[in-house]
Design brief:
alpha/beta, eight-stranded mixed β-sheet, 22% strand, 341 residues, five-stranded mixed β-sheet, UDP-N-acetylmuramoyl-L-alanine:D-glutamate ligase, 13 strands
């Protein structure tokens, strides 16, 4: 048995979240619902403008893969995260945030000058999240931050699509893939955001070569990547690269497909407040279920429930207590259903 259920590779970002208006996004020419990369000066200017009109709602450790690993860990899974922070205030905050969530790292061994990455998350009244990111030192995520022993000792290697923006990060991903394949560690990838498909598709092509065990994406990303206009056609093409494809569909749930079958995962009706982190939570909860040996439908339903719970709260994560309650309710229902078979 391996030590970890999932080892993740991704950007370390401290999120600063604001509730904003569509007019603010339009005035500042910010493309809605996707992630845009900024330099430090541009992001600081944006923060200044936000501070004039809105209050800071929450500051939390973020990053797509980190959010997924926190979700997995708080359900009871064992997670390790490979990332890069600076020896600044945000870096210390980020390390402590992951420690509190039960995610193992070796950040305490890093001593890097520079600035830890930051993400400004702007949530509009329709619950859509728009992100403006200064990558800071995480742009230099490399093989030096890659913990080969953790990759070897994990059931899954989970790769964040945002790493496609950096050439040296892409090299680190390829090195991690090679280690994983040799150690028989399965590989999962998330596209992370439609902006990665639009502007960094070649990097995602590298991540998908020669194939992955699980690919996570939403419907827009799936159709954009494959150049199709139907979910079924997109899944058929994506299955050329992945043994299993998980396509989230917001309030409509998800579709999980292999060459042999499709599993329809139900959505759960909630009042959406903030969609930030929904896809990340879905992936983390699904990987938790899979690594516990659950059937696809059971893992997918837990993931859908957890993602719905996230969008009904402000911020990309849930309290550990909420996750424990959700898991207990789900397991009770799952046992009741299977006992009737």
């Amino acid at each position: 048995m391996k030590k970890y259920h999932v080892v993740g590779l991704g950007n370390a970002l401290v999120d600063r979240e604001f509730q904003v208006t569509d007019e603010f996004l339009a005035t500042h020419q910010i493309e809605k619902s996707i992630m845009t990369l900024l330099d430090e000066a541009q992001q600081q200017l944006l923060l200044t403008e936000l501070g004039k009109q809105f209050k800071l709602e929450k500051m939390v450790g973020g990053g797509s893969a980190a959010n997924s690993l926190v979700g997995l860990s708080q359900f009871g899974g064992k997670a390790f995260y490979c990332c890069k922070v600076a020896n600044d205030e945000d870096g210390a905050f980020y390390r402590q945030d992951l420690e509190r969530a039960g995610v193992a790292t070796r950040l305490h061994t890093q001593d890097n000058d520079g600035h830890t990455g930051k993400c400004v998350v702007m949530v509009t009244p329709d619950a859509e999240r728009t992100m403006a990111t200064f990558l800071g030192i995480t742009i230099d995520f490399s093989t030096e931050e890659l913990q080969a022993d953790a990759v070897r000792d994990s059931e899954y290697l989970y790769i964040e699509g945002y790493l496609a923006t950096s050439e040296i990060a892409r090299h680190a991903v390829q090195e991690a893939r090679a280690i994983a394949e040799e150690a028989k560690t399965k590989i999962a990838l998330t596209f992370s955001d439609s902006s990665m498909v639009k502007y960094f598709k070649e990097g995602l092509d590298e991540f998908l070569t020669p194939g992955v065990d699980i690919l996570f994406c939403n419907r827009e990303e799936a159709e954009l990547y494959t150049g199709t206009n139907s979910l079924e056609a997109a899944m058929d093409k994506l299955l050329n690269y992945a043994r299993e494809v998980v396509v989230t569909r917001g309030k409509e749930g998800a579709v999980i497909g292999t060459r042999e079958k499709r599993v329809q995962v139900p959505g759960f009706k909630v009042k959406a407040i903030d969609t930030n982190g929904a896809g990340d939570m879905f992936a983390g909860a699904y990987l938790y279920g899979v690594t516990q040996g659950w059937p696809t439908a059971a893992a997918g339903t837990l993931a859908s429930r957890a993602a719905a719970e996230v969008v009904s709260h402000y911020g990309p994560r849930l309290p550990a207590e909420t996750q424990r309650e959700l898991l207990a309710a789900h397991e009770a229902e799952f046992v009741a259903e299977t006992s009737d078979l």
